[in-house]
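Chain A, query sequence.
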Amino acid sequence: MAELIIATKERRKRWLKTAVYGLALVGLSIGLVYLLRYLIAHFDISVQEYATTAYLVVFATSLVCNASIFVPVAIHIFVMIAVASTWNPLVTALVASVGGALGEITGYYAGYLGKRIAIPKNTPGYSKVVHWMDRYGPLAVFLISLQPILPFDVAGLLAGASRMPLWKFLLACWAGKFPKYILLCYFSTQILQFLPSWF
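Chain A, predicted structure.
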């Protein structure tokens, strides 16, 4: 009975952390959108002139944030949302997904070189990911990169440890990230239209 109560408290704590993390992400995204709009209005910047630079920033932040292993860095999400609110959301999602997939190579090679030693077994979702990777391979990578809850780093490590070909890993990873980022870009830009425009 005591173990059940402790497990319930841990689950609630995990959900609370996830909710706070999500709210912080939303707040930072909105703040960055307003900052971007302010800078464009204040300095009278031609938006189309800086589209390439904006997409390059999205690519770089997505690459760097996804290259971190077991560190939940979501800066690329609110950079992506800010850029999608001003420039083309489809191109933004494409650039972010390519950068994100390439960033996951670090996790893949950490698993490839370090085998299963590099993966802590107490990582949330570890046993599920191991089962999916053994059974489904690239489909598991696709499904795990498509969903926003389980940490993708475990899938990258396990794909490397199981010696999945790199091109299959990257293709499956990109195929999962792209539709997720498209939904995120379009959904967030629709939501941001309802916020008051101060500039």
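The mean pLDDT is 79. The radius of gyration is 19 Å.
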